[in-house]
């Protein structure tokens, strides 16, 4: 961190609560990485004007606003929201950086005065909302780690007993966690802290019915009225005025806004309530103490809201309705904010950090605060339906509010009629979002995209976009100066756009091409025709409608007269799809080009070698020495450096190789795609026929590459366990990383089905089928919900879930009371969804009908056949209904009540309408990247892989600082950083530091990804290992049991990762001498390892050895020998007699044999001589903690090689020598900072 500015802070307004000196260590968050929390903070009271807080700002890059945030998070100042900081009497700008403030030095006194300027309605609302948040203990995203660790693992939690805790450990896990248990309870997902007692500070705090204040009271400064009921049952009415809050004389039935006597005028609601309610004062202080004792990562807000799919009815997420920060008439110009941040300078690291941080903040505010509030969606879906009688209306595309344009994913104007109607209109927004993401990542100066968020809510897809200045005042035809508004019938171009888009064409692999317009004139484009260029009133060049940024996927686009390659045809392609917007993913394009580049290099090298062999002419060689092959991933961007040398033979070689791989240039490797090929309505000039033919072939090759290379490589990665999906989300991620669209899921599953090693892919197959079924169910649920009235929503959702999951054969829906329905029907509703007919049609759905629909959806969309009932599916594929419930809930945004459900009862349905708590919007948005931090992180990883742990550690620490700078304290990438740091700390022997970093990683993963996300499960496992190494055995066990429970919920027991988890649990139990329990887990691990790695795998050998050790501890030498022999055989066959592992196993076998013989001798002696036998004592060894830890390290992939100092020096010298050899070919040695510069240069042909 930068040098600290020691700044004291004075906060005005009656500090009468703070009469004693506050404990300077009350904020246990001094080590927070976010830089938004203060270090050691001392509080000294100064008369009645305020009190001083000594703040050590971690760096001068911090803004004044962040000091605000720190004070609003502290126990003693958290109830103040409306204040500003001043230095020597001058008010400081909230967005000023500390370093830019004149006269601010170490020891300066900042003052936070009671606001001299008055409260406004907005400030008053923010204050009330903040107080409500303080009174609610639950965070906006859940975390349960502290329940399993008894508070903080660091210094500020309860002190842990070090050393041997064997006396007080209860090792028995709950019944449902034991291997072989079929019970999958839901309630333990959100465990309750037994010691936590709910503290009630206030019974009611609501807006009063007397709002808004009448005109004459506004003249007295009244902003709004509140109603409160204290714990002592005192009913009070409070006025929020410009001067603060005071009691008035109103009651429930009479309005008398005059101040009561005494009125207790206070600047904060907390101060007012502390004076009128002793119970509030006592409980609020206690509540804040509890809040502050939590780990900072349990309290800091997350950048994006994470909703839980199950919750309790007591603490639903309170919608902030009525407390919005932005009152109508106070809208922000989101587009201006977003584009201004993009225009910030980015020449050096500090500038780039500031810019990326600003972009991230604006995007997360739009996504987090503006969009998921329910009110806009409810009204939007109502309004858009009301505005549109669905056909022929000029405003049919949507409506704007709060400076955001909303549109629904329906083909309202027959815009997509030729492309697939509503199906195309539903797919277009996500394609568009992918385009925005791609252009945003290239980040060309002067080219602007719109802030875009796609939201699925209640069966509707809504796109929210920032608005181009001036676009709503003119017709689209007048605005578009580049591209086409009618899918290619009329096309225009613009030189400035061509210049800007040319810069994106190499990284996005888009070919510059000509198309014909309506007058048969040739028009040049550097994007698809749908991509529109509009210059806003602000003079900026915007591009929008990026739905065809990437080329079409011919496997799902049958075209008359075009034949696909044999690889595609063998798999049954081309197949008919719902719409004609099926595109290849960007990851596939990258992989395809990389594949072609390697092919190009091989061909060129081969031809040159042939020439050399023919003529032995040395002059031709330079052609190949000029080619850069960078690192593991081929740098296709600089591939064009292989240009033609001056040797004619070499020129021919390059020309042949270019032709063979489909390069658009004949002199260098350069593959780009024309996204308009096969677009209906787009025509090309006659003179480009050859080029178009070439492009068509390239598209066919790319489609074949997906089927013949990418899908097999995914399956191979799953076979050798380098890809380990645990649930639907991680499976989807694995597909998308390889550029495989989800519509290929059926093809992938068929491929797995035909694989010889299908048994070892059973987990993958099961997760794939579950994903396929829940996605089909989601498609049906979407249209099902569109016909449901709002009042019947929970009944409809519970009925759908009953039909989907319950074994009860005739699920009957609960309709709303009759009189409501009839009264509604009597009113003619204008906003009826087309095709919905009767609004109670949803109630007639039956389980058999739903499963028939799912099976036909699977057949038509994924071309895959499944059974037509939930019980058959569960039986055949070994599913758990809880897993299916989790998957469908997460995909559709349903939140259900956390309780046990009986899915298998044939007498009553599993769900009632009371069990459905909420439906959340499912939001898709662009995640802005912290590019510099990411480069540091990658460089750090590379260093670690080369064995330079200390240097790697420094780079990763630097990456962590930069991530914090851009994202704030909470983010997925920071989580990955902390995990790696913890592992490095552990390997380098700093166990307490490893524990501290891993604890943060777990908390962050729970809150940013979700409490049962596969990533969180793995973080729990790592934390358990570090706890064990720190001697906290009972905590380690509790964490492992939690991980096993989550794993059972998410993917069941039959999964390769479960073997690792069970081996960990078994080893720890062995360490605490719970041998029988230990065996249950280790034998389960052995069975799973044998199934998924094959009986001859080294993992299985290790499992046998672990089981043998436990049997040895139990003195059951025969069983121990049996297992160790199995292990020995595997080691001997795989590694040979001379290998160290084989020798170790052989020694252990000898030892076991001796022990077995000694035991037998003793037993014989006892049988022979009875009680007079002279028994030689047998050696029973309880396992040492060191040996258990050694085995734990081995199974978790951490292997320490004991080296002397001399060995270490030799190793380092060897690694450096190899590095120098690698770098000889390069012009100069790159420094650690170098990758940043390399990445910043975009090579130009």
TrEMBL record:
UniProt domain Clu: residue ranges: 312-557
Skewed-composition ranges (Basic and acidic residues): 14-28, 1225-1245
Major subcellular location class: cytoplasm
Region feature (Disordered): 1-39, 1222-1245
Functional description taken from the UniProt entry: mRNA-binding protein involved in proper cytoplasmic distribution of mitochondria. Specifically binds mRNAs of nuclear-encoded mitochondrial proteins in the cytoplasm and regulates transport or translation of these transcripts close to mitochondria, playing a role in mitochondrial biogenesis.
InterPro entries (alphabetical): CLU-central, CLU_dom, CLU_N, CLU_prot, GSKIP_dom_sf, TPR-like_helical_dom_sf
Protein name: Clustered mitochondria protein homolog
Top-level lineage group: Eukaryota
Entry's Gene Ontology BP terms: intracellular distribution of mitochondria; mitochondrion organization
Transmembrane spans: none
SUPFAM superfamilies the record matches: Hypothetical protein c14orf129, hspc210, TPR-like
Cellular location(s): Cytoplasm; Cytoplasmic granule
Native source species: Cyclopterus lumpus
Gene Ontology cellular-component annotations: cytoplasm
Keyword entries, A-Z: Cytoplasm, RNA-binding
CDD domains: CLU-central (cd15466)
GO molecular function per UniProt: mRNA binding
Family classification: Belongs to the CLU family.
